[in-house]
Design brief:
- The chain is of the alpha/beta class.
- It has three helices and eight strands; from the N terminus they run βαββββαβββα.
- The chain has helices spanning 19-25, 75-84, 120-124; strands at residues 6-12, 29-33, 37-43, 46-52, 67-71, 94-95, 99-105, 111-117.
- It has a four-stranded mixed β-sheet with strand order 1-4-3-2, with no helix packed on it. It has a four-stranded mixed β-sheet with strand order 5-8-7-6.
- The two termini are 18 Å apart.
- The model has no long low-confidence stretch (mean pLDDT 91).
Length: 128
């Protein structure tokens, strides 16, 4: 069966408190506002949503074990931006065997990673 795209959802106790972070700080493009959920375009065929954890299918959890990874060429630029806006828990850029990356948290404590693959042939695996 054909799969068209996916949407990953994070659930929040107070969804409105993170809207400015995703729209203004990260610059995600709002595709659909459903009231209790907002869906954003992250990249070509890549979507992310935030949901009111008091009304959605799942409930907000005080501590999340989920990670949103955004693949981008300009890891240094993203890092500088997250530091300049005072994003929470911004780590140092780490250069590993396969990629360079850093982690930070959204205002509710969800973990986010920005990464770039070193090997262009690996990065090409994820190109549309």
């Amino acid at each position: 069966m054909k799969k068209d795209y996916s949407i990953t959802f994070f659930y929040y106790e107070d969804m409105t408190s993170v809207i400015p972070f995703y729209e203004e700080v990260l610059g995600f493009e709002l595709v659909l506002d459903q009231g209790m959920a907002r869906i954003y375009r992250v990249g070509a065929g890549s979507y992310f949503g935030i949901v009111d954890g008091n009304r959605g299918h799942l409930q907000h959890q005080p501590r999340s074990a989920v990670l949103l990874t955004i693949v981008a060429e300009d890891v240094e630029g993203w890092h500088a931006r997250m530091v300049s806006v005072g994003a929470s828990s911004v780590g140092e850029i780490q250069k590993g065997r396969f990629c360079e990356h850093f982690f930070f948290e959204d205002p509710a404590g969800y973990a986010i990673e920005i990464q770039r693959f070193h090997d262009p042939s690996v990065a090409a695996l994820f190109q549309a």
